[in-house]
Write a structure and sequence with these properties.
mainly alpha
Length: 79
Amino acid sequence: QEALYTISEEKGGPGIKANGLYGQINKFDFFFGLKLGHLIFTDTEKLSRAFQSSDCCLQDVFCAAEAIIHRFRRIQGRK
């Protein structure tokens, strides 16, 4: 963030772009989207690894899928 701020202080194209980006990353919706994306990506990555594993079994896939469904329901506010 400090490096981005330093670049944003410069005049010209890169400074203007960095200034806009610096303004965006300091907003709530940026951090919210980043956190939500991380939560979703973590479980979907587990499911992907279960599918691609050489010793993949149906139980592992079901467990990973259930974890994703549970996470989505918690995010949505349902149980």
